[in-house]
Amino acid sequence: MHPTESPNIRGGHDQARPSIKTPLAYSGSLDSFNHKDLTPVIGREYTGLQIAQVLDAKDRDRLIKDIAITVSQRGVVFFRDQDVTHLQMKDFCERLSILAGCPSSSSLHIHPLTEEGSELGDQISVISSVKQKKGGGLTHQLSDTSRFASVGWHADITFEKVPSDYAMLKIHTLPETGGDTLWASGYEIYDRLSPPMAVFLEGLTATHDASFFHDEAVRLGTPLREIIRGSPLNHGSSLNAVHPVIRTNPVTGWKSVFVNKGFTKRINGITKDESDVLLNYLFNLVTQNHDAQVRFRWNKNDLAIWDNRSNWHCATYDYDETRVGDRVCSLGEAPYLDLDSKSRREWLSLA
């Protein structure tokens, strides 16, 4: 049922509803490509499948749609040794989001700290260890608050009214060892909640905030981007949003926990003490359950695509050498919960 038609929808926004009415069905177009699942619950790796060739294929849209479905079901998908440019990445990510049912008002995201006149354009974020050493993004904030590597777990740009659906990252410069990235499944974390706790959390919202980017912009000498950042709802200097604690992914129809260490500051409608206890519990479910995670060791020109609606990721800063990649984020729908949607395990048991 479309979110605008169901009485059991919590959250969302009329200007940013998904364009699909039911979850998408995989057609099988990727079955002939060599692939393997990396864990039972999250991660898949393809070899011999080139994103650039998919863009030129006769059945391009079918292939891209199946990639979107696979990413949303498996959480993150890795493509080894990609010969793809940043312009092709932008084209692919935009098509991926559209074919997966993003609202017509959503496009590629412009990060608030993206420098105007950037060589790769507004819609490419350069993920650079050089910038990280200067304190760009989350790194500076985290270095002053914790010595636990797990403090870096986050989902991309959840501080926006309309956050990311998909993200693509290609690492082209990397150390000989180190710099792995971890992902964790929001579906699996939801499935580990007791039924009473799940029902309780489904009635709550949380505030996501990135106000620290204002200080970062001043310190780095980069004016904050207050223009429309990929959605008419994402603009201005306010970098905070309220989203459901549990959300539904429209591509799969599965429920996921949707709070993260990087940006979620407060669960609303309860006391701060209660909020702190609940957030710490949810964060611990993510960081302390290695069987809900996948760890990826990058090789040169490897590419990852993940679904930010039902995933967290965490970089590993265990290297001194240069590590650089290009990232593109598309925007999906305003987060909502469909009370009629199912968990991943429920869906698998029915399937």
From TrEMBL:
What Gene3D superfamilies does the record point to? Clavaminate synthase-like
Identify which cofactors the protein needs according to its UniProt entry: Fe(2+)
Give one Pfam family.
TauD
Task: Name a GO CC annotation attached to this entry.
Answer: cytoplasm
Which stretches does the entry tag as region Disordered?
Answer: 1-21
Q: Which residues form the TauD/TfdA-like domain?
A: 35-323
Name the InterPro entries on file.
AtsK-like, TauD-like_sf, TauD/TfdA-like
One GO MF term, please? metal ion binding
Domain of life per record: Eukaryota
Keyword list, A-Z: Dioxygenase, Iron, Metal-binding, Oxidoreductase
Q: Which family does it belong to?
A: Belongs to the TfdA dioxygenase family.
| Protein name, as recorded | TauD/TfdA-like domain-containing protein
